[in-house]
Amino acid sequence: MRPTGERAREAVFDILTHGRYGERPLTEDAMVLDAFAGTGAMGLEALSRGARFATFMEKDRAARAALAQNIAHLGETARSQILNDALRPQRANAPANLIFLDPPYDEPVAAQALTALAAAGWLAADALIILELPARARTELPAGFTRLEERRYGVAKFLFLRRES
What we know:
seven-stranded mixed beta sheet, 7 strands
């Protein structure tokens, strides 16, 4: 696992909180998807900032166990669910409007994951997606996604994307 750095996480949530992409903090009452969740830091942070519900997707067994412990430790089991695989997701019950996508740095699967999640109904029509990649990675986005901005923090870059309606 390669958790998102504390400084980078704080910067991303500052952007989400201070109205850049909406009139109010985007975490308020959000339906969150944290794909390739690892320890769940991004989704759990969103819950602590007022998100309504978070779905975590993580296929690694050890990471899922750590994630489940973190959710339980923070008392968020009622507002969370853990699913297995962002590349082969089950059909969504309700789409998410705030998505954190942090695929393994050594696997260029971001476009594949975006396509699979959209096809399975996980992305609301106007969803905001925060995609974490290696700072030097080149990424071709699938059709239906617009790049809003890019931020770099150390070895990571964050692409802010909007799902086109």
